[in-house]
Amino acid sequence: MKTLFCLTLLGGGFTLILAGLKGPLLRRCGGRWYRCIWLLALAAYTIPYKIALPEILQGSGMSLPAGGGGAVGGFPEATGIDFPAVIPFPAETLSISEILCTVYFIGLAAFILYTVCIYVCFRRRLEQASEIVENENTKACFAAVCQTMGIRRCIRLCENGLAVSPMLVGLFRPQVILPKREFSPEELRMIFRHELTHYKRNDLFYKAAALAVRAVHWFNPLSALMLWNISEACEYSCDEAVVKGLDIKEKQKYGEMLLSQICPEWKNAPFSAGFSGKGKQKKVLERRIEVIMRKKQYRWVGATVLLAAGLVAGTNFMDFKPVYAVPDTVPAQAESLQKPVRNAPPIPSIQNEEDAVRVTSAAVSRLFNTETADMEIWAELDHGENSVQPEGWWFIEFSRETLEYAVWLNPDTGSLRIVRGMTTEILSTEEKTEIRQDTGWLEKAETLLKENYGESKKPVEISFVNLEKTDQRTADIRLLMEDGTYYTISFRSSDGALKSFQYTAENIV
After folding, report:
1. Is 59 left (phi over 0), alpha (psi -120 to 50) or beta?
2. pLDDT tens-digit map of 270-313
């Protein structure tokens, strides 16, 4: 849901830009370009990625957005000596994210069902009222235009008493629908060129893709604006193609024919392209006439580069998949808050986001024997603004379906805490007594430490901690080292699975 939210913000932003600058962009770049540039908006709505910027931009002071605060969901045991308490949710209570996911998928199913019903009703009414065109002159004109445009596929030509303007319908079995009225040969040629241009440019598939994006982002009203504008852009592009090479009188004739289509029209349905489209709207019709009558050469390179650069910049402000393009320099306030310890911590120097992700990913893989390469990774350096996380610490979350890990990392001292998101029950008095009497827990913790950090790590003291707490959910074991550092290892008592691992660079006990 987090990625979807970022995508809908980015796509909505591009929709507002392209829709708001419609008039200037059409005048400068033309209808065909305006149709194509909406592909950027579709990409912004659908593709979660970041672009790796050149090295010259890295380390230039660009920073991650400050954390918005709040407890970390899914990790009820993410509390420790150096961390503020996080209130656990009862096991039977749905989390906010689960509620949002449920609402989202219900809305998605409802939107798809509604769209399918609209289309089925539209096609049923269309088929009932459609007839194959029998007029030989009309058929000959249609065949001649197909030949001129290089279209060899057999496209049905029908007439329909319910249609108020010509239209192209059908993704896989396309047909051109004419209203039941008289058209001159010149009008027919222009109509057929317009509808067949829709066909050659795959406008119906373009609109279908936009409709699919609209379905995914059904909750965002800007996705509806995107869909309407793509349909409108297809009309501008077709008008521009039809009048290309025509003289001024022929363009005027085409414009007059557009005006003649202004009447109460059949409500637009999915997978159709009407000749008049939304031409009944005064502003849209004015723009179409402007596109038809304009003679200038369009300049589109600058606008394309600018909008593409905007998309690239926008992606780097979003929290997408684990491609970290812009390292973040550790802020000055975190550089000298703590004195360095005498012995170097078992964590390399952390200077930016990439280092933090790399180090913690290796730690998760080593300690929990799991691959992190295919996990979604979310990382943030806390700047101390309205956050429950320790200031100057990295918080990094690894997630794949139900498997989740939360990591806290101090870049100055090398202190580290990893918590696996696992449901745990509060320990009973009997269970706590059994744990205290079972030395196997202590031996398991020491073995885990040696397996991951080598024989040189020898604790001088091993003991249970926090078992006296009434809300304790894990068996927490502290291993105090000779240099004053310590490790705290937490096991889930039900099966002995590793729940969390904490290394603290200074003994503050």
Report:
1. left
2. 555 555 544 446 677 777 878 877 766 666 666 677 777 767 66
